[in-house]
Amino acid sequence: MSRIEIVGLSQQFKGHRAVDDVDLTVEDGDFVVLLGPSGCGKTTLLRMIAGLLDPTSGRIRIDGKDVTHLPAKKRNLAMVFQSYALYPHLSVEKNLAFPLNVLKMSQEKKRQRVHEAATALGLEDLLQRKPRELSGGQRQRVAVGRALVREPGAYLMDEPLSNLDARLRTNTRQELTELHDRLAATFVYVTHDQVEAMTMATKIVVLNAGRVEQIGTPQQIYDAPASVFVAGFVGSPPMNLVDGELSAHDGFVQADAIGTTARLWPGSCERHPATIGFRAEHLRIADAATGGLRVDGLVHQVENLGSEQIVYVKVGELMVVATCGREVPVVRGERFVAGVAAKNLHLFDRATGRRMEWVEDPIPLLAGA
Question: How many domains does the chain have?
Fold first, then answer.
């Protein structure tokens, strides 16, 4: 499988910079997910990798070879589109075989490739059916199989599950993950669905307004978001973000926000405006008096999700979100008091929106990540 290197890649459309100076390396065998809201440039970036769109500037290398201006058919990449793009008048078998018609290959070899792809995707009993006779999940598997038969250097997928219902998305997600593991293949996958990104990716690239906000494993993206944007985009419900201030008192750095003070760690720092973030699951009633950040407000709304409940708490003019078990008695309109331990607080510079970390060596200070 292929290694893809992107250096300084940009795309300009009539005064709008859709992709802005992106650097990215997709290692051989990676499952890289390009994640971001609509209009952030992820599909444009994928189309440039595929060779369907020429970049305004920058370079693309596949296995060390510069392919920036090479036609798509010469890049040995397979694209799976959101719309499936199956031929309605052809059977599943002929749809799978279609990409092989342009290759100099014996009929026996073609049949072998089609059989292998059909077996890998559980399509053996559907080979004589037409696309109209298939479910959405089955059609998507045929679209993936049509890419699979080519044995490409990498698979490029543009929101392939967006047309499926929730149950089919879950099943097909598992199938794609198992396929990646079995083939040890290189995948570059576009989605705006963070569940897909978190469950499938070995590496997530979070895009915002054409620029890379953060690259990391799903755990890194969730546990240590590099910016306010990533913190607010990744997570359901999204991270709570409140305005605050960092300062020092009695030999400790502290964070002041929503009318309370959290003691963070020994040291000193100048007063600094910051955005304080915390996940809904880290806001616990048991931590209300532990020295972390304290939330004291009124229950505005409660959503019952079956396994848990989401609690919306009005603190002054702010809305703070907490998650807790069904066994916790929460009543709309009543007081809700909970806390977040200092270790679960995230700090972001108010001016830049970038993450701040504590640096102990050589001089204690707060630095942007």
Answer: 2
Last residue of a domain, one of 185, 213, 233: 233
Q: Are residues 128 and 222 in the same domain?
A: yes
User: Which residues does residue 189 pair with via DSSP β-bridges, in sequence order?
Assistant: 33, 157
Please write the tens of the pLDDT for every residue from 59-117.
999 999 999 999 998 999 999 887 778 899 999 999 999 888 877 788 899 899 899 88
As a whole number of angstroms, the distance between CA 192 and CA 171 comes to 18
Alpha carbon separation from 194 to 119, 186, 231, 293, 300 (Å, rounded)? 29, 20, 12, 27, 26
pTM of the complete model: 0.89
Q: Are 240 and 278 in contact (CB under 8 A)?
A: yes
Which tokens sit at 10?
């940009």
Neighbours of 129 (CB within 10 A): 15
C-alpha 171/C-alpha 178 separation (Å) is: 11
Same domain, 266 and 344: yes
Q: Yes or no: say if 145 and 123 are a contact pair by the CB < 8 Å rule.
A: yes
What does each C-alpha distance from 288 to 275, 284, 328, 350 come to in angstroms?
20, 7, 15, 26
Closest by CA to 133, choosing from 95, 174, 173, 81, is: 95
β-bridge partners, 273: 245
> What is the C-alpha to C-alpha distance for residues 6 and 63, in angstroms, rounded to an integer?
11
Q: Which amino acid belongs to residue 344?
A: N
